[in-house]
Amino acid sequence: MSEDKPKKPDESFWFEANGEKQDSEKQDSEKPRRQNSSEENRLLEAEYRAERALGRATAAQEQALSSQQRAVASTSDAFLAQQELSKLERRFESDGKRVSESRRNFLKISAGLVAGAAIASVVQVPLYANLVSSRNEQVRTLNTQLVQADQQISSLQSQVSALTVRVDTTTGFLTLGVSEQAAVEAIAETIIPSDSSGPGAKEAGVIYFIDRQLASDYGRGANMFTDGPFFLTGQTGPVTVNGQTYSGGSPVVRVGAGTRFQYSLPMREFWRTGIAALETYSNTAYGGNFEGLTASQQMQVLQDLWSNVPSSFSDILPEDFAYEITFMTWAGFLMDPLYGGNQSMVGWQYTGFSGVNQGNAYNEGLTQKQLMVANVATRLQPASLAQFQSPPSSSSAGQSSSSSSSSSSSSSTQSGSQSGSNQSSTGSSGSGSSSTTSGGQ
Questions:
Q1: Which of 417, 343, 418, 352 lies closest to 163 in space, CA to CA?
Q2: How many whole angstroms separate alpha carbon 347 and alpha carbon 350?
């Protein structure tokens, strides 16, 4: 009899049940893994957002730093603009020139300053806002000062124009004839020629100075004792004058000395006679009038006069006439324009003489003491006595001041030229020469 064996469980059921169990266990094990992955993703996303925020913050910081640098540059521009204005003001005080052009340049700098301030305000750099506002206010103030400076320059230019008209004498002749004018002008230009180094007798109007002096007391022989006897210098003896015989002849007197002028002629006639004698000698020795000769021939004629080469010179020693024309030419080049020559003060500008400007004639602000103790000489713009006289009345505004000035200048020129041996005690050639030098200065 067989025993009943225990019934074996159904394997399919076991596998099914076991499989469900395994799936459940697998799901339970994967659940925390998915949770961990989600948290990592969120962390990475947070880190990414943080990095982006940090980048934006860095860019903003760099932009703010750049704005700050531009603001500093704007402040530097303002400081440079202020220095530029100071230079302009000093330059205006020295010569009053080129302010308009410098003003345009300064306005460009000012525009750059305002633009820089605008950039700084756009990027909100409040640290420099007040500083930029202050600089802009300085710019407005400086622009106002420049406008005032322009107005002062215009006023000074008008004054200079008016003074130039008064200093420059009108052209025209009071004494010299047409032929004499040509000869005297050629003589003066031979003595002081115009060349690349500077102006000469022509630019200074020396011929007008000589003409006006010949029409004044100088030409009439005022302050000269013209009674004889007249005893020419350097004559060998025996010489008889007014019944008196001098076995030793006449003494030799240096050219230009007062006692050397031994002629009964007043200066106007002395010049007339001398010019005619010079033209005669030029034609005889060189084949033409003096003004028509070459420059080298003209120089040779004057050298002949200084050497007393002409044997006949209308009873005048050629050397005496050579001295007189040379002296008067230099006087017309260097004396105050008030007397008719040195027009526009070209002679003073050429030689560096300041005339009556003692340091403040044109508001230079210098004193005589400052000029005396300075280590470096200061070349001042020359000033004439005519600039300190009252302006002419309207009735005589268009007339020349030379006629009235000729009489006032005659005594100075007379004392500086050759004087007769019988000249009155009012002056001699020695004292006269220094008198004319100081007068010309």
A1: 343
A2: 5
Considering only residues 83 and 74, tell me which one the structure prediction assigns the higher pLDDT: 83
Residue 60 has pLDDT above 60, yes or no: yes
Distance separating alpha carbons of residues 105 and 98, to the nearest angstrom: 11
Q: What is the pLDDT of residues 87-128, one digit of tens each?
A: 766 665 665 545 455 555 555 555 555 555 455 455 555 555
* pTM for the predicted model, two decimal places: 0.53
CB 361 within 8 A of CB 345: no
* Per-residue CA distances from 361 to 160, 161, 355, 370 (Å): 12, 16, 10, 15
Residue 191 and residue 155 in contact, taking contact as beta carbons nearer than 8 Å = no
The reported pLDDT for the residue numbered 330 is 97
Residue 342: how many other CB atoms lie within 10 Å = 32
Q: Which class for 430: exposed (0-12), middle (13-18), buried (19 or more C-beta within 10 A)?
A: middle
Residue ranges of the domains in the chain? 35-167, 178-325+385-440
Query: Tokens in use for 198?
Result: 């500077």
Per-residue CA distances from 119 to 109, 123, 255, 360 (Å): 16, 7, 82, 47
Provide CB contacts within 8 A for 123, sequence distance 6+: 63, 64, 66, 67, 70
